[in-house]
Amino acid sequence: MSETQKTVSLADLRDRIDAIDAEIQNLINERASCAQKVAEVKLAEQGSEAVVFYRPEREAQVLRRVMERNQGPLGNEEMAKIFRQVMSSCLALEKPMRIAFLGPEGTFTQQAALKHFGKSIISAPMAAIDEVFREVESGAANYGVVPVENSTEGVVNHTLDSFRDSRLRICGEVEIRIHHHLLVAPNVNPDDVTHIYSHQQSLAQCRAWLDRYWPHAERVAVSSNAEAARLAMQAGQNGKAVAAIAGEIACELYGLTTVSANIEDHPDNTTRFLIVGNQEVPPSGQDKTSLLISAKNEPGALYRLLEPFERHGVDMTRLETRPSLMSKWGYIFYIDFKGHHQDDACQAVIADLRERASEVKVLGSYPVAVL
In this protein, which residues make up the domain named Prephenate dehydratase (predicted)? Predict the structure, then answer.
């Protein structure tokens, strides 16, 4: 093939790409117009006070269909991410959402919020998990994002405890593959580092790596990885050799340099986050339900709580215990199971539990994480 033929072929391909781009752009704007009309219909039918613009079950269904009909060459998850952002931008035309998350900016919780809601949101970083709950309860934020468990370090107790007295419902979940990086300010020589800052869970998730490569550096636990990144940059500007363990978003936000990437001890290290809000979510077809249960302090109490799941064929996916704070050696159980609380089998389980426990609180039914 001659150079002329190659040039013509390339030009033809670029013309085709330009034409496709124009078609995609027109279709996105057509979709956005439909979204605006959806908002108008909702306002006309329900009124400005009652209308709910964000429907977690609807978005989960749309993203599942995107992945099911995808034929490549883009992967299913990549295609779903593109649609996720299109949906986020269209929803912002109806009503921009304010999302509270465990801050400061640059945390994995912010990354989870952006993954779940897209980038067309108003971000509201909070200093503590209970502040996220209060922000949503007061109506200052539409939804909140909080970490609930890590695949290697286990449950986040503060999140579970926040559900005891809260009226918020779980509206969704999102999972983030956690990659930790060792970061320093651009002017810092890594060989001079004497202290490493990070959140206590991140330090634990990188324990073996740190023992092997940085055994003499003092490990300092701080409130978040983003705070560790900020402190590392501040220290570097003051001529001090301090490193931080944080993620890519914090690295970019604070202008740090990566010394070593992906230093977590387990490559499949994943954190699960919950979306909390004031609404009950209808079934999406692939759902999960979370319960808070206060058990009676008597022999066989735990068995009687678990037996209905087996009898009704409901798959329990998680069981956690926390002190009840109401009585000495009293405990509260947190249970996740597959299905929506409106499903017949799930209703039967919950009915049995209400007869056997002193309290059963449905924290929410919500779509299983799509991305």
Answer: 98-278
